[in-house]
Amino acid sequence: MNANQKKQITQIITETDDMTIATVRPDGFPQATTVSYVSDGMTIYFGTSDDSQKAKNIAANNKISLTINRPYDSWDSICGISMGGFAHRVSDPDELTRVGQLMLEKFPQIAELEGLMPGEAALFRIEPVAISLLDYTKGFGHTENVTP
Fold it and tell me: Residue 128: how many CA atoms within 13 Å on its side-chain side?
């Protein structure tokens, strides 16, 4: 990955709020779900309820795929990423605190949530393995496959 690709990928991740994440269900079918997320460079974090299907899927198989796309008005301005990686449940107290702060900064409405008890939420870190950078401003269907 060159410096320009890294900058563009990091900007897409940082400047977008939602992604679609695909996990593997017990029956082998993929399950795609839209979630909000925060990031630290190219490492992405998202939270979900501990008993959600995606949390259960990740516990059984932590391979994931995701897409993040900037809003666009026409096909010639599509810009986004597709990523494959591994999801790991965050358990380190320092990391939980740091990511919690990132979430509060990006999504201040989290502070208004009431009644969420410890153990009811799961926080996951996604470590990228393969990234496809989509940039249709360089031509329809333009994709650059990069390794983090």
Answer: 24
The answer to whether the pTM exceeds 0.85 is yes
Cβ 102 vs Cβ 95: under 8 Å? no
Is residue 6 exposed (0-12), middle (13-18) or buried (19+ Cβ within 10 Å)? middle
Identify residue 97 by its one-letter amino acid code.
Answer: T
Given a cut of 50, the residues of the chain with pLDDT beneath it are 117-118
Amino acid at 91: S
**Domain 3-146 = CATH 3.40.1620.10:** no
End-to-end CA distance of the chain: 7
Instruction: Report whether 110 contacts 77 (CB < 8 A).
Output: no
Mean per-residue pLDDT of the chain = 90
